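Ticket reopened. Same input as before:
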Amino acid sequence: DIQMTQSPSSLSASVGDRVTITCRASQGINTYLAWFQQKPGKAPKSLIYDASSLQSGVPSNFRGSGSGTQFTLTITSLQPEDFATYYCQQYNSYPITFGQGTRLEIK
Amino acid sequence: EVQLLESGGGFVQPGGSLRLSCAASGFTFSSYGMIWVRQAPGKGLEWVSVINGAGDRTNYADSVKGRFTMSRDNSKSTLSLYLNNLRVEDTAVYFCAKGMTGWTNKIDSWGQGTLVTVSS
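Engineering reply: fixed in the latest deploy. New output:
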């Protein structure tokens, strides 16, 4: 199985900050990676697919990059609604696996 | 607008069965693969299964293989997940999700989820 490891597991930031979340795959997954945002008690929301493509309707302050085994999600200029938990997912091979999540909290 | 509405969750004893449904609207249902993802209380996301648009190809996580069956009725735009021989560790919110092509685990939309509780 491909293990997806996110770092950090949690971080605190302020409105207006730039934050970066890293996702590392235990083996190469090309660019078959997605990012999701989830708020407490809510369904996940799709943000990015194919490592760097923005889903429709997602603000442009979300950016994804990377390929192979190292990926990043960058949120430029944090907004109040961006505080949530973020997950990466690989869909390169079965079983499909998710990272453990990164909780982004308000400082 | 894509809408996915799950139903069928509930409380069941270990060894019991449930059928989850996901009613889809706002897109051509038969053209897209569909995925189930679950989330145990306080835990992260876990992929469960996928089905292609035609409904003739599926794949399952090892943790549910042989116990869960995914199917779809394209005439009714409905997705189903049959959960058999349930275990305490199957307790989770089950989300249905829409794939971005006919056979994919690349997700663009999610339902609100339905809670399955397995307990004696």
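The radius of gyration of chain A is 13 Å. Chain A is about 0% helix and 50% strand. Please confirm and we'll close it.
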